[in-house]
Backbone:
């Protein structure tokens, strides 16, 4: 699996700045949502005005909601419409049709930071070729592929309990019931895998439903008490065993703990993403 995080994307944009400068663009337009991040970076690097697709059509810049001079220019703008990536070209095709339907007088180029052979037809150019399978750090929990992932719960979907809350009693029950969610993905998670004990399943599932999570399976540890689980002390090993047991039906493990992510990767030699450091082990 090929991976690019925010840091790598920033480096790739800087690497191709000379090419972008040669385009002599007047405006950078981000394709919502994932394209807004790279488009904003490119606009900052090139010291150009910046907007999104709806702003382009309405003649409005993002900065401060100010109106631009789009409709009053005697010459057309040269606009760069930019997305983070292109795969099949569906999103860029919809964007192109939306802009063309507005009959704007501007010269427009369509581009992506990352592209592949399959999506080459959808853009005028892309900066880097990254063939699938691939994943991006900025939207890794907001992709349909989440259905093929194993996802940690505490520290990833909600915060970790404090030492005082982790008493395996009333304080812990209150934590399980009332913890605020950290991330609620738009797509169904394949398997949520957690070192929580099986006896907290009903409370955990109720919490997940309350906050709008969708999941295929919830895998929990089978010990009677937290003390027994601590004596066992093989949290990462247990997660790795479950990851291996899934075979090719699981393409990624998302883990919050950096230490455990390293161990899971070392034991499985399969991709592991750490949400604490936004780092991919692969």
Residues:
């Amino acid at each position: 699996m090929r991976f690019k995080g925010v840091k790598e994307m920033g480096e790739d944009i800087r690497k191709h700045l000379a090419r972008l400068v040669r385009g002599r663009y007047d405006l950078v337009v981000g394709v919502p949502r994932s394209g807004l991040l790279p488009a904003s970076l490119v606009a900052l690097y090139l010291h150009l005005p910046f907007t999104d697709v709806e702003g382009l059509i309405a003649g409005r810049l993002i900065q401060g909601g100010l109106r631009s001079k789009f409709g009053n220019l005697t010459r057309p703008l040269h606009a760069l419409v930019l997305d983070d990536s292109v795969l099949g070209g569906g999103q860029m095709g919809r964007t192109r049709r939306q802009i063309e339907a507005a009959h704007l007088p501007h010269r427009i180029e369509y581009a992506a930071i990352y592209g592949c052979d399959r999506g080459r037809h959808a853009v005028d150019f892309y900066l880097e070729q990254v063939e699938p399978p691939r994943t991006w750090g900025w939207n890794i929990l907001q992709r349909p592929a989440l259905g093929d992932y194993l996802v940690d719960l505490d520290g990833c979907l909600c915060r970790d309990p404090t030492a005082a809350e982790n008493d395996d009693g009333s304080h812990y029950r209150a934590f399980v019931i009332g913890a605020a969610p950290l991330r609620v993905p738009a797509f169904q998670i394949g398997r949520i895998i957690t070192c929580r004990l099986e006896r907290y399943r009903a409370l955990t599932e109720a919490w997940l439903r309350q906050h709008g999570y969708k999941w295929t399976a919830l895998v929990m540890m089978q010990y009677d008490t937290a003390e027994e689980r601590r004596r066992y002390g093989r949290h990462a090993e247990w997660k790795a065993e479950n990851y291996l047991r899934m075979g090719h039906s699981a393409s990624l493990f998302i883990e919050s703990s950096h230490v455990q992510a390293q161990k899971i990767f070392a034991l499985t030699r399969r991709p592991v993403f750490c949400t604490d450091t936004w780092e991919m082990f692969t």
Remarks:
- The CA atoms of residues 148 and 249 lie 6 Å apart.
